[in-house]
Design brief:
single chain, two-stranded antiparallel ribbon, 6 helices, 10 strands
């Protein structure tokens, strides 16, 4: 019934504990238990897929009822923790809405958590012109509230209309 790809078997939510945007410890499993949770791995200085994906999810959430919005959490896990401090990550995510929070911390833990969901994350690369890029998968893993497992994955190119259609289905699963 989803516009995303259904996972069979579903993925278990990673046991990832990093620093949240409020500067306090944020445990992904504990903080999002029983909520529809969309998890994305990326970085705030990303020139393309990260801001557009967050923007599409934000636009889709704005079209939802309060009941759906209240049950959805979007967690952005940075793949560039050296530059994406909790404070800067929080400021960037605030532009997308109150449903968005971020996690920053040990890159090796981030890479392990991403890999457990079939998402690749590479170490950031510094280029001769001073820019830094972080190669990462562009998938959004959707965890359902009933069992806190990822049953659906969305790839790059998923539209805000696709998310808007699926969010009510995800929220009541």
């Amino acid at each position: 019934p989803y516009r995303g790809t259904e996972l069979d078997p579903p993925f278990t939510k990673p046991d990832l504990v990093l620093t949240g945007t409020d500067g306090k410890q944020f445990g992904l499993r504990e903080e999002t238990a029983g909520k529809t949770t969309l998890v994305f791995f990326g970085y705030t200085n990303c020139p393309d897929v990260c801001p557009t994906t967050m923007g599409d999810i934000s636009a889709a959430l704005s079209k939802q009822s309060a009941a759906v919005r209240d049950n959805v959490r979007v967690v952005f896990v940075t793949t560039d923790p050296e530059r994406d401090t909790p404070k800067s990550l929080g400021k960037w995510l605030a532009a997308f809405g109150e449903n968005f929070t971020g996690m920053s911390g040990d890159l090796e833990q981030v890479k392990k958590a991403a890999l457990s969901l079939g998402i690749s994350v590479e170490d950031p690369k510094k280029h001769h012109d001073g820019t830094v890029t972080s190669d990462h998968g562009a998938q959004v893993a959707a965890f359902l509230p009933a069992d806190d497992k990822a049953h659906v994955v969305y790839t790059a190119g998923t539209t805000s209309d696709d998310y808007a259609r699926d969010l009510p289905l995800l929220a009541k699963s």
